[in-house]
Amino acid sequence: MFRRATTLLRRPLMGATSRRFSTDLPAAPVEDSTFVEAWKKVSPNVDPPKTPLAYMKPRPATPTSLPSKLTVNFVLPYASELSAKEVDMVIVPATTGQMGVLPGHVATIAELKPGVLSVHEGNDVTKYFISSGFVFIHANSVADIIAVEAVPVDRIDANLVQKGLQEFTQKLNSATTDLEKAEAQIGVDVHSALNSALTG
Amino acid sequence: MASAGGAAPFWRAAGMTYITYTNICANLVRNCLKEPFKAEAMSREKVHFSLSKWVDGKPEKPTIRSEGSEH
Predict the structure, then answer these.
(1) Is residue B54 a contact partner of residue A187, using CB atoms and an 8 Å limit?
(2) What separation in angstroms does the CA of B22 have from each of A63, A68, A130, B18, B19?
(3) Which of A131, A156, A179 minimises the CB distance to B26?
(4) How far apart are CA B64 and CA B71, in angstroms?
(5) Tens-place pLDDT, residues A109-141
(6) What is the pLDDT of residues A149-165, one digit of tens each?
(7) N or C end of chain A: smaller count of CB under 10 Å?
(8) Does residue B38 form part of some domain?
């Protein structure tokens, strides 16, 4: 009764390795095919003009199976801290709170607040204090982190942080105009974040 | 991310642009560094630009601004 079982069971295994998942997202097309076809119908002898799509780099393909590592590009206006580094996880200080980014994270754009960025690779954790910036997470597990100023946490001077915190708390209490209040508030936010970075 | 079309961040409400905000944050962080990193960072803060007003399609004499942090 089960003599044909082995052949029947073997069939799906042989096919699956060569076929891609139906949920894979292929790379974005380089040209608009409907436009090109319509052009060729009207004037088959003239080459269709290039559309802006043709000059842009297409969105790369997004495989369904999750990549095992996150590729991180961390740039500053004056230097490139990390360039296409493969890591396991990064925790970014987004305005909505600490956000952990793992490979396969949904595509996100997040604004960063002053805080600590930690890069986790195996058992190593590298921490940077970021002044503010943005993080762009792409669907293919590439994360671009941009910041104006980023320093390793051990370069921060605790005394200066305390002094700054006191100074800005005073300014906040004595501020009159909206702009002064906003500047003082920024000072308090940044120094409190620096403080937690040193203690946390 | 901020709520859809909701309250602007406090600095935006006070009339500050994002660039001003982020430059202030960066300056404050640079001021809290240990030496010698602080000295290196201070050189990054310097801006050097020349500004000239245009009148009747012709530029007037330019003013050169070369200084540290703006405020």
Answers:
(1) no
(2) 36, 34, 11, 6, 5
(3) A131
(4) 17
(5) 999 999 999 999 988 899 999 999 999 999 888
(6) 999 998 888 999 999 99
(7) N
(8) yes
Residue A104 backbone class (left: φ over 0; alpha: ψ -120 to 50; beta: rest): left
d(Cα B15, Cα B18) in Å, to the nearest integer? Answer: 10
Q: Is the dihedral of CA A78, A84, A88, A94 positive or negative?
A: positive
Q: Do B29 and A110 touch (CB under 8 A)?
A: no
Residue B22 within any structural domain of the chain: yes
From chain B, pick out residues whose CB is under 8 angstroms from the CB of A183: 24
CATH of the domain at B14: 1.10.1620
B17 domain residue, yes or no: yes
- Buried-exposed string A121-137: b where 16+ CB fall within 10 A, e elsewhere: beeeebebbbbbbbbeb
Domain that holds residue B60: 10-67
The answer to whether residue B1 sits within a structural domain is no
Give the DSSP H or E segment for B20.
Answer: helix B18-31
To probe the interface with A, which of B18, B25, B40, B46 has the most A CB atoms within 10 Å? B25
**Residues contacting residue A64 through CB under 8 Å, at least 6 positions apart:** A21, A23, A24, A25
CA pair distance B44, B62, nearest whole angstrom = 24
Q: What is the ipTM of this complex?
A: 0.72
Domain count, chain B: 1
| Adjacent-strand bridge partners of A116 | A129
